[in-house]
Amino acid sequence: MFYRTTFFLFSFFISQQANAGFSPEQNLNYLKATLEGSAAAGAGSPKIAAPYAARQEKDALGRTVSPRTKALYDQTLASLGGRQLAPLEKDFILTILNSPELDYGPFKNRVGLIRYFHGAGVRIKEQNSGLTETDLWRLINAVRAAAQAYRIPPAIVMCLTFRESSFDPEASAWTTSAKGIGQLTNPAVEETIKLYHRHPDLKASTLLYAQLLGAKMPDQLEPAPEVDRLNKEIRALKTRKAAAAIIKQKEEEKRRVIASYKDQPGHIFNLETNFGLASAYLAYLRYHRLKEVSGETRGWLTAIAAYNQGLGIANELVRDVFGAQNYNSQSVEAIFTPQHAGYLSIPKARQEEMLGEVLSVYRCSAP
Length: 367
Hints:
Mean pLDDT: 75
Low-confidence stretches: 1-55, 100-114, 120-128
């Protein structure tokens, strides 16, 4: 969640695709054309039955696939050591391989990411999540839009949001008010809205993100009080160690309520809105509050530490534990250690949570 949460990890959105060499203008035009087609198909993205056989001839948008893409796809499948991918996973991988090139910074080795996820035993299982096939396309388009609008490496924001919610747009923590794919709490949403109205550059980025997706970014929090009420009831039932069937009934009721908000533009449980809010806040942390941190990888991972535990804790790590100049001379592995986390003014459980978040995203997004 925003500042604090427990979560898992999965992402595959990396560079080196078949359409390398596109200019930024061509990338943006392609993205706009793709998203315009998505809007015509309804809320979210088109539900396209992407081919996923090895050496396939067409990509998810019907374009001819280059020999390089075929080789990358076959290499990806071979890297999984014989494990059979679910259809959603195949479609997702293929979509990434055929995405137009964006600026991914140093996060370019998609095959390495997929190997990491395989090693972690991560799979997309639709039946265990609110994530549907259409949601995958909506997510991919949201990542493309966020990369353009907020200048965030796609690998970073995808690894972070999977760590937060397993890409489940219906995720809702029963211990807090954290909601949606970015696990944003109600106060976090309110703060982010204030931020993009206060800072002209962040507002321009937010308007571009919304325009690219045909989405709505809210002017005020549109909460889900029924969900908060049900979470309190579930928490009380678990505290009393109530029967599992009773707890399950409440959780199913909560799922139904959340699902009713999923396609409501501007709502905290709307996938595009929630992802945009998470991206806006992460960009604010990196470009406004942690400008003194140098280095692409170090800078974004420090922003993730702030996203997880709060800006004050990230500043404490930079300025008090190391000192800004010394911090910028350290490697990520040297910074994010139990020893250095131990100097922070947060309990050990939160220290471990921060390290788990940052290092998981680091492994996930590493070249």
